[in-house]
Amino acid sequence: MSAHLVLVGLMGAGKSEVGRECAARLGRQWVDTDELAVAIAGRPFTSVWSDGEAVFRGFERQAIADAVAAPEPLVISCGGGAVLDPENRRRLRAAGTVVWLRARPETLAARVGSGEGRPLLAGDPLAALRRLTELRGPAYEAAAHVVVDTDDRTIGEVVDEVVRHCDATARAK
Ligand code: S3P
Fold this sequence. Notes:
Blueprint: E1 4-8, H1 15-26, E2 29-32, H2 33-41, H3 45-50, H4 53-68, E3 74-77, H5 86-95, E4 96-102, H6 105-112, H7 125-143, E5 146-149, H8 155-172
Helix pairs in contact: 1-8, 2-4, 4-5, 6-7
This protein binds shikimate-3-phosphate.
């Protein structure tokens, strides 16, 4: 199986922007598991989510299985909750280098703004991100090979570090 570069972390961690830029630098294709899940479902995110979070998680699980099965090495940005499922964690870790883009809740809240399009942040995004940071910390830790802190850093700086880790892992194999 290919050695994918996998980005995990909470909403606002920069998984999409960093993922796109890493893919450009590495000459790889970029995939986003939210986009893949919606494509598999064949209907918009809001429609899938309105059937219940568990329905979305089922499509997300399929999206992850499909992404890691790609024969060429990809950059895979995962939805923030993907790592909660132990099977997803196992698959992602086995598929390449998993990087946790970590940030303080205040940083994440500043990046997501009103949290539009993210139902788990409805109401008070900062309070929700504080709670999710507590709840999910152990799952990100269990999923990740590498942690990259993104507070007070530009996308370019974060990408430099992620690509360095990716190269180092590839050399070690
Ligand atoms: C979620 C994060 C979202 C999306 C859904 C649930 C989560 O993806 O999968 O709203 O549980 O953290 P992003 O992290 O790409 O915003």
